[in-house]
From TrEMBL:
Protein's UniProt name: Nuclear receptor domain-containing protein
GO annotations of cellular component type: nucleus
Pfam families (alphabetical): zf-C4 (PF00105)
Family annotation (SMART domains): ZnF_C4
Record's keyword terms, sorted: DNA-binding, Metal-binding, Nucleus, Receptor, Transcription, Transcription regulation, Zinc, Zinc-finger
Amino acid sequence: MPVCKACYNRCAVGKNFGAETCASCAAFFRRTVRLKIVYPCKNDFYSCRKDAVRFVSAVHACRKCRFDRCIELGMNPGLVQNPRPNQSKLSLMPKEVVHSFSTQFPLISSMTNVLRATLLDRCITSDARLTIGTSEPASNFLSYNVYRRLTLCEVKKYREMLDYSPVVCELNKDVKDAIFRNSFALALIVVQVHFNLKHRSLGFENKKKIYIFPNVYFDLDPEKLLFFFASHKNPQSLAGMNDCLAIARVFDLRLPQDWARTGED
């Protein structure tokens, strides 16, 4: 089995950006160049040795030394292409940060680049076939299981973002996990508010709908909320209806009187 000269793992190697490396190092090089990340050196014997990726893992190995080895092998940053967004979709990428701001605040600029990469695949489209919500039919209906799957994807993306965020990326896994646990709930709220406002700015003006993800919405309608909560509850229990009543109170929605019964019928 050949050895990659950038990380010294025994794996398949090929021509990547002008040098013979493995796929992992190619991805690492591409990500570093695209996000314009400047890594600090760890100045540690074990983390900076050339086989650190193999013996102490890619997370704990010095990224600066790994990137320098890629350059020494002949990998050319000029060969890295930026991803091409689909012009048929409305992009949610943040606006470009002006050059003077980037040079004065490199930490904020690096964080902006990470956020830009994270939001790269979050696109709003007017195609009704790609819309999921509590008013949609059949396979496009937003059930509890679909909402749970979308939220778990959001959890994964947010945790991955911490691995590339400046300062945070240099912390050990336990600390990053603690930051994740203590901040994800707030981050999810901010993201959902962002998506809802973005839909409004792009012409999705139905105020009876709350957009929580791109093209994913809840109706502020008690009956439809009831169907959503009932989609994961035991049909014989009143838990789904109780959840619906609680949500209705939060949004000041008026329910028919017979919905408030406790199930004596």
